[in-house]
Specification:
Order of helices and strands: HHEEEEEEEE
Shape: elongated
Number of helices: 2
Distance between the termini: 32 Å
Largest sheet: 4 strands, antiparallel
Structural class: mainly beta
CATH class of the largest domain: Mainly Beta
Strand order of the largest sheet: 1-8-3-6
Number of strands: 8
CATH architecture of the largest domain: Sandwich
Amino acid sequence: MGWDHSIAEIFAEDYAYIHVGPTYRYAITWLSPPDDKLRSDMFAALGGTPTTPLPAAPNAPLVVHRVGTLGPRKTKIVPFGLLGPGRHVTFTAIVSRATRKGVRARIQVLCNGAVAGTQTVGKGQKVRTLDLPNMGPGDCDARLVSSAPVSLKYNLRLQLAVEGEAFLR
């Protein structure tokens, strides 16, 4: 039935909610927050209501760099996962090697098989950036796709961050 029907995932959503409160955004959209009875039962099973607040989540983004040469009409793929909602994905490509005309490459981010964003790298362009807020959860990849008949040198930077104050508490 999919990950969103897994007992462990449902428990994880409810666990996060009872600790964070109404500012928590569920990744499982069909699931309602636990009522007071379930909340008290969960705390009882876990040993009681916490006496100290949860530590703040790290707010430093994860950054992945890739540098190399891409063959003519080849694709470089950087796979990544987004474990929850409210993720901010920034994908930047620096492509060097001039072509006389036309599009020489494109950058894309795909999540769960769907294109989340795309931009072309055309004549006279070296740097392109995709800025994709409010992503996740999902299995994703960032791609540099060459349409040039020659090799291209590339420098890729993929940044993954958690959005909003609700996720930083």
